[in-house]
Amino acid sequence: MNHLFSINDLSVEDIHQLIDDANEIIESSESPHLPHTGALLFYEPSTRTKMSFEMACINSGVNLLSFAPETSSVTKGESLYDTVKTVEAIGAEFVVIRHNQERYYDELNQISIPIINAGDGSGEHPTQSLLDLLTIKQDFGHFENLVITICGDILHSRVARSNAQILSKLGAKVQFVAKSEWHDQSLPFEYVTMDEAVKESDVIMLLRVQNERHKQTYQCEDYLDQYGLTVERGKLMKPKSIIMHPAPFNRGVEIDSSLVECERSRIFKQMSNGVAMRQAIINFYINQGGLTYDITH
Ligand code: CP
């Protein structure tokens, strides 16, 4: 029977043959012609980011090691560092990590392969930011002097933190709309009302209420009317202004359901742009050995 249930299923000759074969594989793996391999380590849920990295890898011919925390040795207490070190030892040339701990990457400074941050708690989401920049540039061709209003749960949003910093650096005028409890004093941007924002913005970037990061689930019946993009407010937007949202979105909470797929909406365009941008990011880090995303430090 051709199975390997027990070490005793193999003859001594078989074992020596396997040792020789493995050594040959190690020697041949130094060839530069092997396909590249990476790993996606998602400790928090994701649809878009994970699937678009998977699609980007398919398009680039990059193999992915499979990982799910609930079926991995994380359940036996293995630390993030030891998991990433293991993935590196197994042969991944880069890792994409999403984790609920802000700046989780600070404990990974002994890792040699590139680490691509797919979201660190309320910290940053640099790859989302890059695909958002691509989407904005497709519409406007530049960033300078664009008025970009980021609206919603600013305090808990890694997307807001990455986008506000980089868009401002690129010359856009960034401003926020948020309930006072969700103002982030660490970000030096002005807060305006939603009624002001819709009239003056080139981009209205909506955010989900991040209930998973709140001590108590936020419930507000009139959130859409107070802070969201209603149909009436949508009509006040400038002719070429666009609506963005990193998603997942909550129809009828931060955005009227009918606006999700309206002509101004770039929400699904952002998702398809995510594949191309993540393909570019993977190629960049594989080919250049990795550069730091400087706004995280
Ligand atoms: N925008 C975003 O990060 O979506 P996911 O949480 O589904 O990856």
UniProtKB/TrEMBL annotation:
Cite the binding residues for carbamoyl phosphate.
Answer: R48, T49, R98, H125, Q128, A247, P248
One of its GO biological process terms is: 'de novo' UMP biosynthetic process
An annotated GO cellular component of this protein is: cytosol
Aspartate/ornithine carbamoyltransferase Asp/Orn-binding domain spans which residues?
145-283
One MF term in the entry's GO annotations: amino acid binding
Q: What is its EC number?
A: 2.1.3.2
Its catalytic activity?
A: carbamoyl phosphate + L-aspartate = N-carbamoyl-L-aspartate + phosphate + H(+)
What are the record keywords, sorted?
A: Pyrimidine biosynthesis, Transferase
Q: Give the domain of life.
A: Bacteria
Signal sequence, renumbered to the chain: none
For L-aspartate, which residues are the binding ones?
A: K76, R158, R208
Q: What positions does the domain Aspartate/ornithine carbamoyltransferase carbamoyl-P binding occupy?
A: 3-138
Its pathway is:
Pyrimidine metabolism; UMP biosynthesis via de novo pathway; (S)-dihydroorotate from bicarbonate: step 2/3
Show the InterPro entries listed in the entry.
Answer: Asp/Orn_carbamoyltranf_P-bd, Asp/Orn_carbamoylTrfase, Asp/Orn_carbamoylTrfase_sf, Asp_carbamoyltransf, Asp_carbamoyltransf_Asp/Orn-bd
EC main class here is transferase
Record's family? Answer: Belongs to the aspartate/ornithine carbamoyltransferase superfamily. ATCase family.
What name goes with this protein?
Aspartate carbamoyltransferase
